[in-house]
Each structure stands twice: as structure tokens, then as C-alpha cells.
Design a protein that fits this description.
This protein is of the alpha/beta class. The protein is built from 13 helices and eight strands. The chain is elongated, with a radius of gyration of 21 Å.
Length: 307
């Protein structure tokens, strides 16, 4: 199965709750009127596109009707596909070249698939012939350290770890030193998803940020926030919280294949200005994939045969 087909399959539940309902709506109406737009709004909100983005899309549709770019219900689906593709692709920038190790700090609450994501990321980069090092800086969960060790063995990458309960910033410091000494291409740092209070968690993340920045200029070069797609609008709330505390550069959206709420991808971009960089569309180690806005929109709206 090609990557596009795998993405299409992973979006089945969202497509059933979103695109197919739009198709049924189009069949049921001879023209786009106020009732049609009300029904469309319900579909968009049901897919967790969010109130802000839904309002924006409805306004865009009204303007397109006025400009005669939409003249019948049949024109709606290609218009929405293009508009959502534009929203997702807006503001994307090329990753700048750097000297020395590229440091990726991974954050997120417990239970979203953060540790598994790091394992899959390390596997992906290793298969791209990059030299990868993992830092097990979530020292508050022994299971997280053990899990990353299993992933490092499976992926053939090195790991820096301390004992459970150790200072996470000390792990990050040792990992940064090791990454430079070993000429590592990519250093991926795990972080705790829960401490005693929200303040403690955010202060710990800031401390790790400072430590790696002192050792490697410009680090961390990426701060990836892992969110669980099945939580819908709750993922937006989490993103706001982390964005306030650390300079989140992008989002990893896990469990996209297990939800009808895939519209949250659009909400994350439109409401928070954060791009989804990676999506999880299955359980396998190769099922975490770089997010491509055009492919996502096409897979969501199309039954095409692209490979």
C-alpha cells in the first residue's frame, strides 16, 4: 500500500463523519441557502474543525457565492478541499540548515503517545541514514525510560538515560554533550508529561530548554508538541497551554486513524498558527509520517488512486 493510500485509509473515520456527510448534504439540496449552511456548520463542528475555523469557512463560502465562484451545491466540495488545503499550507517554512546536532525537544501530557512518537521518529530518521541519539529525560516515569530503551534497540539508535527520579535537565545536558562528541545528526529529547503541578511541569521544560541552548547554539531547533487526535478540542486546549510555556514549533498528531475528529488538524493551524508536522495513522513503527497539507486535503476529500 502506497503512502497516499495509507493516509486515505487512516482518515476513513473522519471522511465518514465529514466528507461523506457533506456529499449527502449536497445531494439533499438544489441550492445553497441558509438551512444548507446551518447543516454544513453542524458537520464541520462535528468533525472538530472548531468554532473559529467553521465560522471562517462559512464566511468564505458566502463570499464565494456572492462572487459566483460557488453557483451550486456541487461546487462546494472542491471549494472546501482547496480552502482547507490553503489553510493547512499557509505559513510553512523550510527547515534551516544548522551546524552540529539538530535538537528536537518533544513535549505533551501523559497518554498522548509521546514516548512511542519519539521511538517512531528515531526509527524514521535512522532509516533516512541519520545518526540519531535519544535522551530519556522523562525521569518521572520508569516506564518511559524502559520504553525508550526498547525503541532504541529496535531502531538501532543510541540512548542517554539516568535513573528514575534523576534531574531531567542533567539527562539533557549529558545527551547534548554526547551528541556533540559522537557527531550525532539528530538528538531527540523526551520530557515529562506530568509533574505535581502545571507550574512545575512548565518550569522543568524551560530548564531543559535553557540547558540544551547553552550547550548547542540555537537548540532546541524544534519543539514538537504531541497531541492525541481522538481528544478533539481538548487537544486545542493542551496546545494553548504548552504554547504559552515553551516555544512550540510544530505538532505531532497521533491516533488520527482512530477518530472521526480529524478536522482538529485544521483547527490547530487556523486557531493557533501551529503546523501539524507529523501524523500517526497506525500502530506500526512506520506509521508516523511527515504531514503534507496537499495530500491530507486530497485524501480527506478524494477517492483518487494516487500512489
Amino acid at each position: 500500500m502506497g503512502l497516499f493510500d495509507k493516509l486515505k485509509t487512516g482518515l476513513n473515520k473522519t471522511r465518514q463523519g465529514f466528507t461523506e456527510k457533506i456529499e449527502q448534504l449536497i445531494i439533499g439540496y438544489a441550492q445553497i441557502d441558509a438551512e444548507f449552511l446551518d447543516d454544513l456548520e453542524v458537520i464541520l463542528l462535528g468533525a472538530d474543525v472548531g468554532i473559529y475555523t467553521t465560522t471562517k469557512l462559512i464566511d468564505d463560502i458566502k463570499k464565494a457565492i456572492k462572487d459566483k465562484r460557488i453557483q451550486s451545491p456541487e461546487d462546494l466540495k472542491p471549494f472546501l478541499a482547496a480552502r482547507i488545503g490553503d489553510i493547512l499550507a499557509s505559513g510553512t517554512v523550510e527547515t534551516a540548515a544548522i551546524e552540529g546536532p539538530r535538537v528536537i525537544m518533544v513535549v505533551g501530557v501523559n497518554g498522548v503517545g509521546k514516548t512511542t512518537t519519539i521511538g517512531k521518529l528515531s526509527n524514521y530518521y535512522h532509516e533516512q541514514n541519520h545518526k540519531v541519539l535519544i535522551a530519556a529525560a522523562d525521569t518521572f516515569r520508569a516506564a518511559a525510560i524502559d520504553q525508550l530503551e526498547i525503541w532504541s534497540d529496535r531502531s538501532g539508535v543510541d540512548i542517554i538515560k539516568h535513573r528514575e527520579g534523576s534531574d531531567p535537565a542533567a539527562v539533557a545536558f549529558d545527551a547534548a554533550q554526547a551528541a556533540k562528541a559522537r557527531n550525532v545528526d539528530i538528538l531527540i529529547i523526551d520530557t515529562a508529561g506530568r509533574l505535581h503541578t502545571k507550574t512545575n511541569l512548565m518550569e522543568e521544560l524551560k530548564k531543559i530548554h535553557r540547558v540544551v541552548a547553552k550547550e548547542i547554539p540555537g537548540a532546541p531547533h524544534e519543539v514538537l508538541l504531541v497531541l492525541d487526535a481522538t481528544t478533539g478540542q481538548n487537544a486545542i486546549s493542551q496546545a494553548k497551554l504548552f504554547k504559552e510555556a515553551v516555544q512550540v514549533t510544530g505538532v505531532v498528531l497521533t491516533k488520527l486513524d482512530g477518530t472521526a475528529k480529524g478536522g482538529v488538524v485544521v483547527a490547530i493551524k487556523a486557531e493557533l498558527g501551529l503546523s501539524v508536522e507529523w501524523i500517526g495513522i497506525g500502530e506500526g513503527k512506520d506509521d508516523l509520517r511527515p504531514f503534507v497539507a496537499k495530500d491530507f486535503a486530497e485524501a480527506l476529500f478524494s477517492g483518487g488512486d494516487k500512489q
